[in-house]
Amino acid sequence: MNKIETVSLDRLRESHEIPSIGDDLLFFEDIQMLPQLDGPRRMNCIIIAVCTDGEGGYTLNESKRSIKPGDAMIMTEGQIVNEIWMSENAKGHAMLISRSFIDEIFKELRDMSSIFLLAREHPVFPLNSNEQDKVKEFVEIIKERLLFDDYRFKKEVVRLLIIAMIYDIGTAIMRVMDREGAEPANNSKAKRCFVKFIQLVEQNFRSERRVSWYANQMGLTPKYLSEIISTTSKRTPNDWIDKYVTTEIRNQLSNTNKKISEIADDLNFPSQSFLGKYFRENVGMSPSEYRKRN
User: For helices 188-204 and 222-233, what crossing angle results, to 10°?
Assistant: First the structure.
């Protein structure tokens, strides 16, 4: 296999008769209906789910995650999901949301972008009883609106409901980050710079690994960008860039049959040896060793 298939909303909508908004949003009233994967899939959408009973789990970017009652889960776009499993008694709700619809949600609410960036580090997090009750209320209202086929302002109303629900879930994420002492700085300008930087890295890490390039795109000096990112996220810009690059290399080594030289070409390394040196410095072993272990 030389290509990782994607989790596609349009294909899922064709195979499931469930409440939806075109190819922008799918609503799974039963968490058991989440797609069972027969191999690695790259997310081209965002999954928001809440478990109310039973248990489950999944493997995301080579890391295993478990879900228990009261847990919320956010899987963001671009990540590799290897498996999703649920116990027979698992219950809960899930929404699959397209990138374009998420962009509409984020259009004027920049702070919400940082919530999803934080969720990349903590894709599963617990909700307290009050938050669980609020999410349940939102889910019921969203489902009700989705079932109205001739509801003229369905998409607009659902968008606003999701915004409100994410803010409530975001409070839980921030609580986790507060506990670890790694929440973004209160400075709104720093938050916006952090979000913009991560968005640029997500879009360009395959070809650009220089902090100076990202600083130039943002109209900042490399030193100032480094100060902002380090203060905001407790990681340097190079740490973030390396994280995205090594995660992609790991995924391709584990989930495709591509030659290492082909992966080097895909990620714009000058040669296979350059990729090997880079990977060893960041992961502690050669690409060949990593592939054998996985």
Answer: 100
